[in-house]
Write a structure and sequence with these properties.
46% helix, homodimer, alpha/beta, six-stranded mixed β-sheet, four-stranded parallel β-sheet
Chain lengths: 314, 314
């Protein structure tokens, strides 16, 4: 299993920098007073398609040689990776097929279709997704771009942290949310290569704590019936991701949904920006472990801002 | 009646620049496609206290000579100006008294008190506000800082537009929401002095269209029983503001609450930022007058981001 190194992440940055947004790093005085730490938020909610996922998808698509690229790309996803891959393929001018569960929300189907990707529907089970995807690949010769257990995806996700270190190397800790581990593993490689002494922490919802349990057990323990408002963090750790996380991550903390909602509300109210629940887990972890972070300069990656506002009454 | 000129606004900028945030100017591809225009949003929702009001309050407080300043400042307001003045006074280390209606929401009382200002409650009528304020001023020797009908407040508000022109002078139109007219009049002076050919437009809710009617009639027609979700735009035009607006503003457009809500949702969903309803009126106006703005480079001032999120179910 080949683990990416920092040169791979630097190469990813060179490859995608004209396609992705360099997102801002924001601070907030009130949140600093409440937490007792100096927190710098990397705003991937402002990234294209509203999430860091676009970095990895973009790097995977543009890393393909011309022959493979011409045959297109495919994935199974109903989330941000689906839109990210569809947009990246559109930018390179190549076909993309997204396998989506037939019960996906209309707004997500529309978004993927809006980027010009083909959608193939399947039953809403992991087995159906995987078998349908295999069929698509066999028929069309597409390259499968896994949402997180993929070398180039991980390198792409690592470019968010790289932008942070390009602004300052004084951070004592960096915290990313963990679902499949794509963002966390890319972040960890970048952070430890840029500053070996930095602490790399993961933040995970209590109701989907497979990464926490896997990390402590030293082997992958798959997620079973996860239950959390963080719809972006339901998946189990990937193999390559677990390998990297075991090697580079210092610790994983969990927070419950009430703590996550309170942190999310704080970000909305005080920073006036919209983040999805998954993005708020790192701040929830800081606020429930204040003694650990007090007085420290910390970077937190806000992973995305895709919330269904249809439910809100204005 | 002395009207501020551009030198006054430049002086305001020099006076307040170490206290206010230089807010970002953001664009969004989707909103540009939908509108057919190239819109640059000046994000005063990211300003201190969450609204442009801090600029004017800050300029008024720091423009006082030491003797007057030592005696403190006062205003009547239950809105963003109350918090803005309280914070500005705190920064200069002088007393502030805010007259607030006794039915003000607890969260607003807490915010003002949190900045260390004294609060004097009164009955929720304009008469009670004014007479209570007079009493406070007579007793304490405070200087009254009117929320918008005030020379230095207008100069402070004009610094938001000045930051826009420091980035680019290529704008063909600039649009600000109008309530009392503080932001609009400062914006108009800056814009016309920086680029005489630019169009300066105001955007106003249909349910509180006193500025529209005053502008067309050539005299102030006070707001009567305004009814709109834009709680920041309920007041009538000030006298100094009307004078400036008559002279420098090209036109005033109105939008109804449904159009404003749709524009606000678009900003939340696509830009991932939180703005209050008042901020969305200019975009609503652009979207309902597409032919006028098609192909043009436009600046819109997002006036603030103070929304009661307590009502939202996460």
């Amino acid at each position: 299993m080949k683990i990416p190194n920092f040169a791979d992440i630097r190469a990813a940055k060179a490859r995608i920098s004209s396609f992705v947004h360099t997102t801002p790093l924001l601070t907030n005085n009130t949140i600093n007073s409440i937490s007792g730490a100096e927190i710098h938020f990397k705003c991937e909610n402002f990234q294209k398609v509203g999430a860091f996922k676009f970095r990895g998808a973009c790097n995977s698509v543009f890393a393909l040689d011309d022959n493979s690229a011409a045959k297109g790309v495919a994935t199974h996803s109903s989330g941000n990776h689906a839109q990210a891959l569809a947009l990246a393929a559109k930018m390179r001018g190549i076909p993309a097929t997204i396998v989506m569960p037939n019960n996906s929300p209309q707004v997500k189907k529309d978004a993927v279709a809006g980027y010009g990707a083909d959608i193939v529907f399947c039953k809403p089970t992991l087995e159906a997704r995987e078998s349908t995807l295999e069929q698509v690949i066999a028929e069309k010769g597409h390259t499968f771009i896994h949402p997180y257990d993929n070398f180039n995806v991980i390198c792409g996700q690592g470019t968010a942290a790289l932008e942070i270190f390009e602004l300052s190397s004084e951070f004592e800790a960096i915290i990313a949310p963990v679902g499949g581990g794509g963002l966390l593993s890319g972040t960890a490689i970048t952070a430890k290569s840029q500053k070996p002494g930095i602490k790399v922490y993961a933040a995970e919802p209590e109701g989907a704590d497979d990464a926490y349990r896997s990390f402590k057990a030293g082997k992958i323990i798959p997620s079973k019936n996860p239950d959390t408002i963080c719809d972006g963090l339901l998946t189990s750790l990937g193999e390559l991701n677990f390998e990297i996380i075991s090697q580079y991550v210092d610790d994983i903390f969990t927070a419950n949904d009430e703590e996550i909602k309170a942190a999310m509300r704080l970000i909305w109210e005080r920073m006036k920006i919209i983040v999805e629940p998954s993005s708020a887990v790192p701040l929830a972890v800081v606020l429930t472990n204040k003694e650990l972070f007090a007085g420290k300069k910390i970077a937190i990656i806000l992973s995305g801002g895709n919330v269904d506002l249809g439910k809100l009454e204005f």
